[in-house]
Specification:
single chain, 510 residues, mainly alpha, two-stranded antiparallel ribbon, 3% strand, disordered N terminus
Length: 510
């Protein structure tokens, strides 16, 4: 096929040689995708298992016994190690038996729970969000909310972030947040913000809440039990931390949001054609039908039921609400049933509802696969038998220090462990039986060790690429990992200093 173009003036001699210099377009270096980042992390961790010697503690009721660490042969070797690398995503999805540490994690005693429940939960959320969008109810509802709160949008940001922070501090709200992105993104775009604001209201809110957990049974509860203390011990310091750090995070996100609203060119995630289309759809929504109103009620009721079903109300001494103890299989079923109900009530019909469910699951498959890859890193550590070796080295680092230094060191030594074991409950069950008794020698209360552990776990899980919450949330929000790191880096520094200050305060005020 012949193409035609306008005449071009002859280039002067030497133009070929100068084509790569000033004036020539430069190729922009793009940060790799979340998939590439996780594959690189997986390969790096796998390579380190050949350097770090394997070892383990003796266990009692699934928890390591202090003073029993000893070297062992690697959990697997030769071709088996190569097989671990290639099968890590699959094992991350299904879960594997932990023959080295015997850690108890959600999903069964002595196993690393697979990501299958979270995987299906994400697909079900995608089906639910897409069905609600196709009825037009979500767009109409977002437009009405944005119209009413446009002049108080900063207050709305602070309130929403605080709500997610409450979920984090009370029950460790994490993967459940993935269901809220479909609601938050159109709302924030309609208010004049960008996708970074939508993502961080959820992610930073819940993450900071988890960092400053007060009665979170999966972090504070498991760690306190493993440390041999009550969950309520140290709660005054943790409440003060939660209020202060939530205010810090809300102010940081609100400051960025105001800057973007005033000058969109300063956005870290510039508006795309899709973003403009979402904003235009909300702008052009004239009203809401009764059918759409019913769909919105179902939409809100589904999220409310999710929150009620996962919070351990009995542990919070709230008797009038039932403790259902739902986990991701039940939540996946909830959203799938709700997707069908929303489609039928919203007038999509049988075929339209089926199409919405399958299309929505397809749209979220990328985020689900990110979760699967992240969980596979933990499987590699387990099969190689090196996690206990790392824990033993950390335990020896903090021995024999003063109380103030000890408190800060407890936070620092838990940072790499939080990277290796993203699960807060798995991290607690692994580290607390070893690290908590060290507080007795340092002359500090054991609850300070719990606070240091959960602060480290929450701090790392705000940025770690092995976290399904971070990588999955960014994938759903369509925010690149490098963009998120640029946004959150100053906040991470501020949180680091604040946590260290609170830990030192905890050694002084007892």
């Amino acid at each position: 096929m012949t193409t035609h173009s306008a005449p071009v003036s002859p280039r002067p001699a030497g133009a070929e040689a100068d084509s790569g210099k000033a004036g020539a377009p430069r190729r922009r270096v793009r940060f790799p995708s979340a998939f590439t980042v996780l594959i690189a992390v997986t390969a790096a961790v796998w390579a380190l298992t050949f350097v770090i010697p394997a070892g383990r503690y003796a266990t009692e009721d699934g928890s390591p016994v202090p003073g029993t660490y000893h070297r062992v042969g690697p959990g697997s070797g030769g071709w088996d190690r190569l097989e671990d690398l290639f099968l890590s995503p699959v094992n991350g999805l299904y879960g594997v038996t932990d023959t080295q540490t015997g850690i108890t994690t959600p999903g069964g005693t002595g196993t690393f729970a697979g990501a299958a429940g979270v995987f299906l939960f994400i697909l079900a959320v995608g089906a639910f969000i897409t069905a609600a969008l196709r009825t037009g109810a979500l767009t109409a509802g977002v437009a009405r909310l944005a119209q009413r709160l446009h002049r108080r949008r900063t207050l709305l940001l602070v309130v929403l972030l605080t709500v997610f922070s409450l979920g984090g501090t009370t029950y460790g709200m994490a993967e459940e947040t993935l269901g809220f992105y479909g609601l938050m993104i159109p709302l924030m775009l309609r208010l004049g913000y960008d996708r970074m604001v939508a993502a961080t209201v959820i992610m930073v809110g819940a993450g900071v809440g988890t960092l400053a957990s007060t009665v979170n049974p999966f972090a504070t509860g498991v760690a306190s039990d493993s440390a041999g203390i009550g969950t309520g011990e140290g709660i005054v310091l943790r409440l003060l931390m939660w209020a202060s750090l939530t205010a810090l995070a809300a102010g940081y996100v609100a400051r960025y949001a105001r800057r973007v609203a005033a000058d969109p060119s300063r956005s870290l995630t510039p508006l795309t054609e899709e973003d403009r289309r979402i904003g235009d759809e909300a702008e052009g929504t004239a009203g809401m039908t009764k059918r759409q109103g019913v769909v919105l009620c179902l939409f809100a009721a589904t999220f409310l039921l999710m929150v009620v079903a996962v919070v351990p109300w009995a542990d919070l001494h709230i008797a009038f609400l039932p403790t259902l103890g739902w986990y991701f299989p039940e939540l996946a079923a909830l959203f799938l049933v709700a997707a069908i109900a929303v489609g039928l009530v919203g007038g999509l019909g049988e075929k339209g509802t089926a199409d919405a469910v399958t299309a929505g699951a397809g749209d979220f498959i990328g985020a689900a696969m990110i979760v699967m890859l992240a969980r596979g890193v933990t499987v590699i550590m387990s099969n190689a038998g090196v996690t206990d070796t790392v824990l033993d080295a950390l335990q020896r680092t903090v021995s024999g220090t003063s109380s103030g230094v000890f408190a800060v060191l407890m936070f620092v030594v838990n940072l790499p462990l939080a990277f290796l074991v993203p699960s807060s409950s798995g991290h607690a069950a692994l580290a607390m039986p070893i690290l908590a008794p060290l507080a007795d020698f340092a002359g500090v209360d054991r609850d300070l060790v719990v606070t240091a552990y959960q602060s480290a776990s929450g701090w790392v899980n705000l940025i770690t690429p092995t976290s399904a919450v971070v990588m999955g949330g960014l994938a759903v929000a369509k925010v690149r990992y490098d963009q998120y790191l640029r946004f959150i880096a100053p906040l991470m520094g501020a949180l680091l200093v604040a946590v260290a200050g609170f830990l030192v305060l905890g050694t002084v005020v007892r």
